[in-house]
Specification:
With 203 residues, the protein is of the alpha/beta class. 33% of the residues lie in helices and 15% in strands. The protein has helices at residues 7-10, 56-64, 73-90, 108-117, 128-134, 141-149, 176-185, and strands at residues 4-6, 22-27, 34-39, 42-48, 66-67, 101-103, 126-127, 162-163. Helix 5 (128-134) packs across helix 6 (141-149).
Length: 203
């Protein structure tokens, strides 16, 4: 199971992170270039080069944080582990990530939703309403959707496995074609999806 530590568990102050101690690594993938961001031996963001990470701060760190070659050993090791696990995932050799994760942004409710995303198994889907009910907030499907959309750790925290109430594909930081590709890759595609994922053009 992926290890998760929130910023508030390390620092009881504001959820706005400090700027020091960050490192980044760009990796190629079937979905285009991914920029991995780590801090304090935890992966904290995955940024799609061609699309927006919902957190401006994370986009900035993906562009300006120190390169892996100059990161401290523990943080560099996490970036290398994340890159290796992504390679294995895309090659269909890995179904569950074990890279240590950390939430450096988000409200307590957002983090609660993101933690729930980690419980969705490979190859399965959940709707926003189902997630809301699992969290004991059956009327909060819209708020859950907002939290899912602001997940800073795409792929590792699998928000791509969340769909609309009738099974329809909804937004994703990497774009809907990437979400569709991921669901097809995991064997979770549905006839309701717009087109077979193998017909999609990705980076």
């Amino acid at each position: 199971m992926t290890s998760l530590l929130t910023a508030s568990q390390r620092n009881q102050g504001s959820p706005t992170p400090a700027a020091e101690g960050w490192a980044r690594l760009a990796v190629a993938s079937p979905l285009g270039q991914l920029r991995l961001v780590a801090r304090d031996a935890r992966l904290v963001a995955v940024v799609f080069k061609e699309h927006r990470n919902p957190w401006a701060f994370m986009r900035g760190q993906a562009a300006t944080a120190t390169a892996i070659a100059t990161a401290n050993d523990a943080t560099a090791a996490v970036l290398s582990q994340a890159a290796g696990e992504l390679e294995a995932f895309f090659a269909d050799r890995l179904r569950q990530f074990s890279t240590p994760l950390g939430f450096e942004v988000g409200t307590p409710f957002y983090r609660e939703v993101w933690a729930a995303l980690l419980e969705i198994p490979f190859g399965q889907r959940r709707s926003y309403g189902e997630l809301a009910r699992l969290l004991g907030r059956p009327s909060a499907a819209r708020a859950v959707g907002t939290a899912v959309a602001r997940n800073p750790l795409s792929l590792f925290v699998p928000c791509h496995r969340v769909v609309g109430g009738e099974g329809q594909l909804t937004g994703f930081a990497g774009g809907l074609p990437a979400k569709q590709w991921l669901l097809q890759h995991e064997g979770a595609a549905s006839p309701r999806d717009a087109a077979p994922a193998h017909q999609l053009t990705l980076g």
